[in-house]
Design a protein that fits this description.
Blueprint lengths: L7 H22 L12 H20 L11 H11 L10 H11 L28
């Protein structure tokens, strides 16, 4: 909703909802390795693609960058931990996310300029966060 809002008030409401949701997730993950305890659940599976894309594409393109995954230590560690689970890294293409979102959403990025980062390395993907 942030990136497609047509008024400042609508954008602000949507942005605050994003910030609140990220804070709730960070708090929850401060208490457990995964969203619902010590095992991966469908909730983790559904959340990961959004979180993996958030700092690389959504935060900037959709204008909800006042809180990034990188600002939230438990959510960031969860993302890095989840990425290291068998088979997950094969499904992640951070450069592809940026290229696709910034290059193809003309109304939000009429110039088609694709930022050079953050990259998977910038996001710490592939580095063990020591949660498991």
């Amino acid at each position: 909703r942030c990136g497609f809002a047509t008024t400042q008030a609508a954008h602000n409401r949507a942005a605050l909802d994003v910030i609140d949701a990220l804070d709730v997730l960070d708090d929850r993950l401060s208490k457990s390795r995964f969203l619902c305890g010590d095992r991966v659940t469908e909730s983790d599976l559904r959340l990961f693609p959004t979180i993996a894309r958030f700092d690389a594409a959504y935060a900037t393109l959709f204008k909800c960058s006042s809180r990034r995954v990188g600002d939230l230590p438990h959510l960031e560690a969860w993302m890095r931990d989840f990425y290291l689970l068998p088979g997950v890294s094969d499904t992640v293409d951070v450069d592809g996310y940026r290229t696709s979102y910034f290059g193809q959403l003309f109304p939000l990025n009429p110039g088609g300029i694709v930022p050079i980062g953050p990259t998977a390395r910038d996001l710490g993907l592939g580095v063990d966060p020591g949660r498991g």
